[in-house]
Each structure stands twice: as C-alpha cells, then as structure tokens.
Amino acid sequence: MNPDTKTTAAEPSPLADLPEWAAFERAARSATLDPSRLAVINAAGIDLDTSGQHASPELHEAAAALLSARGFDDMRRRLLDGDIVNPTEERAAWHTALRAPAAIPEVAAERQRLIEFVHTADSERRWRNIVHIGIGGSDWGVRLAVAAFGYAGTWRQVHFVANIDGHAIQGGLSGFDPRDTLIIMASKSFTTAETLENGQRALEWLRAAGVADPCKQMVAITARPEAAAAWGIPDAHIFKLWDWVGGRFSLWSAVSLSTALAVSADVIAGMQAGAAAMDKHFAEAPIAENAAVQMAMSGIVNRSILGYGSLNIAPYDFRLANLVPYVQQLEMESLGKSVDLAGRAVGVPTGPAVWGMPGTDAQHTFFQWLHQGSDGAPVDFIICAHADHGWPRHHRILLANCLAQRQALLQGKSYDEALKECLAAGMPRARAEWLARHRAYGGGRPSNLIVLPRLSPYTLGALLALYEHKVFVQGVVWGINPFDQWGVEYGKVLAKGLTAQLNGTAPVETAHNASTAHWVERLKGPCTGT
Ligand code: F6P
Fold it and tell me: Which of 6, 304, 329, 492 has the fewest C-beta atoms lying within 10 Å of its C-beta?
C-alpha cells in the first residue's frame, strides 16, 4: 500500500494532439460491424461478447498503441498499488485493497469487526428492521446487493433512505418498531446534508418512541469516526472507511453492513472474491483479451468517434434493476468531465450519459427509440445463463428476448425484407411499399453482451469490478481524473447558501439570476403541511 506517496503521474499530452489518437480515429472510422464476427472474452467466470462492436485488426493495433502512448501500464500499476491516482484530491483510489484476498491488517480488522457484529445480531435475533441512510455511493451498491440476493424476501426488512425529501425518511421509518430497528448511517465524509438530516430525524424518532439510549441503536460507517462519535454513536458501532476509498467504490467496505445483515456476510465475501478475480484478470490479461480494456476502447469509439451521446444498460434480470443507477453513478460521476489532468480541454467528447432499465420492461418503454430513433445508443445487454427460479420457460423467453433485441439492433431489417413481409401478408402493393418504409430499419447499432453463468455474489462482484476498470481505462485514454467530482461539490455549496435564504436566516443574494431570486422570495418561509 502506498496512499501516502505524494507522487503523481506525469501529465499526459492533449489527447487530440497525439498521432496515436489520429491513427485510432482513422482505424475506428473504417472498422466495421460485421455480423459474422464472433469475439468472446472470459474474465473471472463471466463472458464478454464484443461481437456487436466495430472492429478490425487495424483498430486493435491502434488501440494498443494509444494505450501505450497514454502510459496505461504504469497508470494501472499505480492504481493497483495504491499510489495517488486522484491528484486533485491528492488521494489513492485503492478500492481493490478492500477486496484483496490477503487484506492489509487494517482492512482485515474492519472485515472481522463487521462479521462479528452481524454474528452477534444474528445469534441474538436482533434488529428485525434496518434503516440504511446514505446517498450516492453510500447507497446504490447496498441497494443493488440487497435487491439482487434478497429479492424473494429477507428475515430483516431494510428500508433505504437517501433523499433529503422528508417523505423519504417518513416512509423509511414508517411501519417499523423503533425498539427493534437499527439505524445505519453510511457516509464517507459524514458531512453530506441528506445523510446527516435524515440521521437526525431517525434519532428523534427513536427518542420520541422512548428508546432509552437511542445512539446504541445507531451505526456509522465513515472516514471521519470522530464526527460520528460526536453524535454520540458508540465506538463499537463505528466502522472505518479510509480516505483512499472513493465514495462510489465504498460498497467494498463496511458500508455493506446492511447487505450482510439482510442477506448474510457471505454475500459480501462472495462479491469481494469475484471482484478480486476480476482485478487479477485486469492486472494480468493481455490487452486483446482484457475484458475491461476491450469494453473501454469500444466505448471510446462509440462516444468520441461515432458520436453516441449515451450508453444504455439493459440487464435482462429483474434482480439487477439497481445495476442501472449503480453504473450510472460510477460512469457519470467518474467520466462526466471535460478537462484533462493538466486542466486543458480534452478536445473530444468524454463520458456518455448512462441510462437503462431491466429487459423486458425496457422493450416496452424505450426500445423503439433504440431501434429506429434518430440517435440510438450502444447497449450493454446483461444476462444470466441460468436462473434461480423453477420456471425454465420464463427464462428461455427472457433470454430469447435479449438475443432478439440485440440481433435486431445489429442487423436491422432491410426495406426489401420489410416489403416481402408486407406482400406476404396480402397487402396491396402500394400500401406494402409505403408500410415497408416504416417497418424497415438500418441496424448497425453497437452492443455488448455480458453473460453471467448465474447471478451469485461472485459473478456480481466480478461484473461491478469489470465496469470499474472499464471506467478507469477510459479515464486514462481521455486523460481525465475519474476519481473526483468537483461539479457535484459546487452544487452542494450553492444549496447550503440557498437553504439559509429560504429559512430567512440569510438575506437573498443579489448575485442570483432573476429566476432564482424570484423563486427564493416566493418559496421562503413555512413550507410543510405539518
Ligand atoms: O455525489 C457526491 C458524493 O460525494 C458521491 O461521490 C458520494 O457517493 C456521495 O456524495 C455520498 O457521500 P458521503 O458518503 O460522503 O456521504
């Protein structure tokens, strides 16, 4: 481990100035989406099928040359060694250390504390209800794992409260018996307004119910244990996070305590093992067989060269609904930046908007746009080869739908095929020719297919690490820092000032734009129904 190392990598040259970028762009523009190509990489037990991406031997070569020009090997080593890779915050981004099989002592100690906490709670049959309070990275990973492995119900009920909207905490506390409810506050910084306010409401709720020592029913997971202790949370209930764990990677830490209480500590161990296997693959596999690298490079082709502004995530597994916001935060908070490490404009479009919904719901919601809309978007299809229910018929239909959508996006349907169909259905020629123009579509829309043998903690862990490393590689190529989030920070500062103005404890700022000033005047003062 080396988080204290104050060295930073040399600043890369502007991407667009590199001859390797020009060669990559040229090769990408002449690469084809060839329906006869089959390209599958196995990584940590999951298959990544990139057959639906633009490819050519020249593009593969140009990608390798570009990665080398961007110092990829060195950057990857720095990431995995825990060196500083987040220079704007002078931090490492060493989430891989949290899942390393041979953990460093302080990580191993926290893991052990978590296991013991869960073991005690289970053996005492305590905490029938959990309220998990946290937002962003302190929320999505836990929600994802609890839904993925607790979709059929859990002994403990977990309510998630993230939003500052008071209805969220109202709903989160309702229906729970305060005497058997554990409030878990997850916040790396322990300064996040949403989490602190919601935590206060939960504390008041315990107090109002006559709980003698409410802080004993609270747990905090944070990189600022002193701030949690100042709240009155006992030391035995404070779990440590480290400065070198980015907020959006914190599900690998004790932030997943709620997961362990809801669906067992084995789930966390399994996810860590799968992620560690993907880390090993990422560290060792050659470029051409490296799943994260291949995914990253085709993503760059799609975004920066072919001009696709978004990436659709389509998990054909109902249990993975929360994968969409999870990947959304991971990708958009990491890559939603336009300047490089030297502070210059990157010069090419960077991180796409990420959106999606599980199939087959997605098909009945927005797939029309993916197939025939004027923009379209690359799609990551995700399936499990085997289901965990007893209805093979459902699973076959689900898989068939996924493969069908993917094929249609890739191959489309020609006007002649559409015309033939219309004529075969007995339409008069004039109507058939008119209708065929509506029914035909171009295809040629890129996609990945990711196949998990089945949804297990191991495969989910591997999948999440695959996306993490993909994002890292894209950051290296674009030359941006994927580990900070200054845009979000500025909004937080503005919101603080506006809160005081709405409360009437600070004057309305003259620097506001006309509309903000108007609405602050209109909305300030009492504003709730109770
Ligand atoms: O949205 C900004 C952010 O800092 C995320 O990166 C983070 O996951 C979230 O807020 C919550 O932060 P914290 O864990 O410090 O409460």
Answer: 6
Q: Is 492 a catalytic residue?
A: yes
Of 86, 187, 189, 221, which is best to mutate to test ligand 1, by the most ligand atoms within 8 angstroms of its C-beta? 189
Instruction: Tell me how far apart the alpha carbons of residues 176 and 188 are, in angstroms, rounded to a whole number.
Output: 26
The answer to whether residues 258 and 158 touch, using CB atoms and an 8 Å cutoff, is yes
> Per residue in 450-463, is it b (16+ CB within 10 Å) or e — as a string?
bbbeebbbbbbbbb
Residue 11 confidence (pLDDT): 63
| Residue-level pLDDT at 7 | 46
Dihedral sign for Cα atoms in the order 421, 424, 429, 435: negative
Identify how many contiguous H helices and E strands the chain contains and give both numbers: 20, 13
Nearest to 313 by CA among 330, 297, 301: 330
Whole-angstrom CA distances from 512 to 288, 498, 502, 503, 516 are 52, 10, 13, 16, 6
pLDDT tens by residue, 338-390: 999 999 999 999 999 999 999 999 999 999 999 999 999 999 999 999 999 99
Letter string b/e over residues 346-378, b meaning 16 or more CB atoms within 10 A of that residue's CB? bbbebbbebbbbbbbebbeebbeebbeeeebbb
**Is the C-alpha dihedral spanning 241, 243, 249, 252 positive or negative?**
negative
Q: For the CA atoms of 350, 8, 43, 358, what is the dihedral angle to 10 degrees? A: -40
Q: How far apart are CA 378 and CA 122, in angstroms?
A: 44
C-alpha span between 470 and 451 (Å, rounded): 17
CA distances from 183 to 30, 94, 127, 186, 399 (A): 56, 28, 9, 10, 39
Ligand 1 pocket test: which of 86, 89, 135 has the largest number of ligand atoms within 8 Å of its C-beta?
135
Q: C-alpha angle 373/378/381, rounded to 5°? A: 115
Alpha helix stretches (DSSP H) within 70-104 = 72-81, 96-99
Task: Name beta bridge partners: 42.
Answer: 47
Residues of the chain predicted below pLDDT 70: 1-12, 529-530
Q: How many CA atoms lie within 13 A of 219 on its CB side?
A: 26
pLDDT confidence of residue 357: 98
H or E segment to which residue 354 belongs: strand 353-356
Radius of gyration of the chain (CA): 25
Cα–Cα distance, 127 to 294 (Å, whole number): 45
| Residue 475 neighbours by CB distance under 10 Å | 26
Q: For residue 195, give the ligand 1 atom closest to its CA.
A: 16
Torsion, CA 397, CA 403, CA 404, CA 408, rounded to 10 = 170
Known catalytic membership, residue 496: no
* Spatial CA neighbour of 422 closest among 446, 410, 439: 439
Residue 444: its pLDDT value, please?
Answer: 94
